[in-house]
Amino acid sequence: MKTVPFAYVCVVLCLLLAACGKSKEEAVDLPQIIERGELTVLTVSGSTSYFNYRGEPMGFQYELAQQFARSLGVKLNVKIVKDENALVDSLLAGKGDLIAYNLAVTNRRKDKLIYCGEENITHQVIVQRRGKNVLTDVTQLVDRDVYVNPGVYRVRLANLNKELGGGIRLHVMPADSVSAEGLITQVAEGVIDYTVATNEVARINKTYYPNLDIRLKISFDQRSSWAVRKTSPRLAEAADKWHKENINSAEFRASAQRYFELNKHVSHGAILSVADGKISVYDDLFRKYAKQIGWDWRLLASLAYTESNFDPNVTSWAGAKGLMQLMPATSRAMGVPAGKENDPEESIRAGVKLIAALQQIFKKVDDPAEQVKFVLAAYNAGAGHVTDAIALARKYGRDPYVWEHNVAHYILLKSNEEFYQDPVCKNGYFRGTETYNFVREVLERTEVYKEKIRS
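Structure tokens predicted for Transglycosylase SLT domain-containing protein (455 residues):
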């Protein structure tokens, strides 16, 4: 009898064990998930899916995944991957149970995946300002200037231009000069007239800029939804059932409204009373606590006004509360007693404690005036996004300790995939336009206060 080499036997055994391990992993379905008490979802960092805001995870798809996990009675574990292809590869490799993202439905993917949950329809739209001259038909784009970044928007617009026989003046803006959301801001502010976005991204941006019109569609509809492996049919059924039963629930609707409907800006009224020499009824508190961080009290007052319009009872779209608009987790970390989030003094005291912590994080910024800008940006965005912008500035040869035209440049680009997916970035997507404007507004208002109010 011929003897089989021992090394050959070892190789065969290893392959069999690997195959068994793979089958076991792929066989994970709803019963196994419930037994282990945890649902692992895969998603992509972005404005409609998942992002970090002031140190807390947020995003429409993230919130839906939370709600779904709670319905199963399990904990949620979120893993962020680079893009759609990585979502599918990671799912098939057993690194997650469910894709919680609007994954494009394709015939090729149907061979390996079960699409589940709510089916969404996405398409590209022209972003323009409302008014009597608003475009209502794609043929009206002829002889118009449309600004886009390189990528899918440029490709679609170039194809549309061919379909129309030419005439669209297409301006391709380098990704390192302005992001897609930066272009939308330019449309809202009247700098340019037209750009392109998906209908979802356009809807979110309309909550920041109500003067936008996003009705003109320029591409075919693309179906998308959540997905699981073929070997997880019971999990797919549970997702289908949950979406069907909860799409009209108060919790589901609240999440949809938070991202796609609620105005993201605090309404500001004229509160400054020059005749009385006061900024607000909280001036004495601002004077008292500003000393702890070495700030002019009028700078602290300007920060509070920009955050809350001096309304201690306001709650932002993201859930920030009180005069200083602290997020729930931050409020707890800064020692605000439960139920005291709207107490003016507690809010100011906690806000100042947060500022002191941020001053330590950015202590390498030697210039006091520059450090204030970094601290204000981190107060608004969360320290992680500012440290990402610092890392990008350093990588691309700009001064990491100077705000304007340096670190601020990369805060503005953190909504651009090319930058927030850079290996030096640890905190993913962020809408930097709001933070950039926040820093500028707080400092400009501080100068007005200094001119009109005694120290």
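Residues 6-26 have pLDDT under 50 and may be disordered.
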